[in-house]
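If your schedule permits, I should be very grateful for your opinion on a structural question. I have a record of one protein: its chain in single-letter code and its fold written as discrete structure tokens. Would you kindly read the sequence against the tokens and tell me how you understand this chain to fold? Thank you for your consideration; the sequence and its tokens are set out here.


***
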Amino acid sequence: MELAKTYNPEEVEGKWYQYWTDNHLFSSKPDGRKPYTVVIPPPNVTGVLHMGHMLNETIQDILVRHARMEGKNACWVPGTDHASIATEAKVVNRLAEQGIKKTDLTREEFLKHAWDWTEEHGGIILKQLRRVGASCDWDRTAFTMDEERSKSVIHVFVDLYRKGLIYRGVRMVNWDPKAKTALSDEEVVYKEEHTKLYYMKYYVSEDDGTGATGEEGEIIHQDAKGRYAVVATTRPETIMGDVAMCINPNDPKNHWLRGKKVIVPLVGRVIPVIEDEYVDIEFGTGCLKVTPAHDVNDYMLGEKYNLQAIDIFNDDATISEAAGMYVGQERFAVRKQIAIDLQEAGLMEKIEDYDNKIGCSERTGVPIEPKLSMQWFLKMQHFADLALPPVMNDEIKFYPTKYKNTYRHWLENIKDWCISRQLWWGHRIPAYYLPEGGYVVAETIDEAVKLAQEKSGNANLTAADLRQDEDALDTWFSSWLWPISLFDGIMNPDNEEFNYYYPTSDLVTGPDIIFFWVARMIMAGYEFTGKMPFKNVYFTGIVRDKLGRKMSKSLGNSPDPLDLIDRFGADGVRMGMMLAAPAGNDILFDEALCEQGRNFCNKIWNAFRLVQGWQVDDNAAQPETARLAVEWFDAKLRQSAAEIADLYSKYRLSEALMEVYHLFWDEFSSWFLEMVKPAYGSPIDKATYQSVLGAFDHLLHLLHPFMPFITEELWQHLTERKAGESIMVSPQTIAAPAEGDNAILANVEIVKNVVAGVRAIRNTKNISPRETLDLQVIGTDPVPAYDCIIVKMANVGSVTATENKGEGVSSFMVGTTEYAVPLGGLIDVEAELAKAEAELKHLEGFLNGVKKKLQNERFVNNAPAAVVELERKKQSDAESKIATLKETIASLKK
């Protein structure tokens, strides 16, 4: 069947994706082949496809399709993450639009709304992945809150609790006032902000004036009201929680405050001055206000010196009753007002501009509040000890390796993981509180009742007497089990699929979740299976615009991937992404790359149409030019395929694509097809035609992982196919490089350079391509067997070896061999002579200027060596060109 004149991705992509799924070509079941397993980094269930997903899924699909074509049993498991904070926020917002508050609902009523939302929006992103060409085994689609995954999560919590690795306690946590939940340290993003530094006066209580003059080095502040210390802070709104002032015992300027008590400005609370080397002498005035309930480091000081902790914030970061002032007001509004009130009361020394890093919630974007809170924690040192060695020893390999240092630094400074969240959407913590106090941890309510009866000694306790913990688990507590739980490896660790598919092969993810997810999956893998969860981790870069800015909705610089696919086709967009996507480096995305991808699709399409349009003569003999061309391209294919395989093994996918691109565009289309193309109106011999189709088949196989749709369409047109056949599962059969390939390739490189030299003479001398020229080899012809290709490709009548070039020739060098084209009667000698003499005059003037500079001793002695060397190279190049021009002029004058 003949191809359409132009390539139309819209007609091709949907058709073949449906064909692949109808024929279950993405499906995988355990068999005797080597497995190749990839698990998708589960996108948020409420999410839609963005450019980061586009990059990540394209890379995974390339690896999976390549593995299939290697004959492996490729299994790519898709799924979504329940995304506790993000999903609950969306549900709360939708309820608010209906005039319903979360607090008006029971937990069960709210969860019904959440499940409705999930069922309505949950499949959107997975459907969108089909447009990209993602070859996932859709029958295996999982969800972090489906029944199988949920049972696994609860089982793991109970297991870790019984091992003594999970505990409950009041600790300082990162609090998200918008989501009203605790966060782990990894969910806090630090942003540069232009803020203020407020210098406040803390007057000395019951000041007796002792040491008013000050000892050497002491700095004493005093006004009509008495002596005072100055405290610099970025957060004056927290003074209602101040319980001490701290100075460094080694700070001479503040020695006068030792043993004193000071008065918190506006608040009037008298607080002690304590001493600790923790205080930075150089920051501000060296005096630190201590607010244990609202700063992690202050909390540690509070623990050390047994200080009271006053929590002045409500869960939404408004001021609480405990503050006694500004109650109910929003924290940043209070900051502005308290600065005014301090100034009016004469309690503000000064205010300065200050650049500061503010910790913000990774999910909601609002500044977090350090807050004392009762939470559940996982002890992490045990897991860090498990997870560090395999990465450092390259048992699990990172690509690029630079992320090993990032990984090591985090694990060597590990902190316990706050795993509880004050949310309803998520896996509810399986802890059950007894009526008289205490709690039990169990996988089911029946087991909880039994444990509670044993713990209390009350055999009459029932489920109605127990109260389950209201909190849900951190979303990452489910996704850290993802490679295991997808194959039921937690609840049923000896099942056939788990033993076959686990450990998985490659993980493709962004470096921004190396702590959230990658490290924790490694921890879970060794803890619950004794094995690594995956063998290799490929870290993608961050997709940025061509100005280097991170793509975001707020900047309006992030295109819709589906819109790009509509305009350029999925293959074009995939290629555009991959051309700019070396592992681990940020991607400077430009739509022009997608246009280049679309143009490449058109190039492939048109090349196929050209070949398809040739008439074949079954009885014609194969010309020597075609035989040599086939021999050369076979060698080139073997060489490129070996190089591409090596690049795949190193996860240098962008370079692998470039190698295929150049192989098709430059070597196949620009050279090979031109070498074998029959004369206009003439047929091609059958042997050569079959070789061309075979080469096309190999090229389509090499291209397929990157550009699956167009390659399937053309592969199906190469010959008659049976129903259900696909390039995707047809093996790649390019042989390994053969002895003698290098010699063939080197010879044809000479041929290509000779042809390029003749074409350059045509261009510079304005000689028509139809004009047949003669070509002289001065001395010995290095590739006489290939002269027939030169004759055809350069349109020369003959290639003649001679010892001396004649008059009126234009020559060029290929390596150490000179080639000459006689120009008698083909050019306007007078015009060429005038042109050469003008260029000679220009070059001689340029050379004189360079020489003068090099004769200047001051320049030579004082300029950087590299600059002087550059001038000497200019001199050498100019002298060489002048010599060639003089030779040309002499030849033209004869």
In short: The radius of gyration is 37 Å. Residues 865-893 form the longest helix (29 residues).
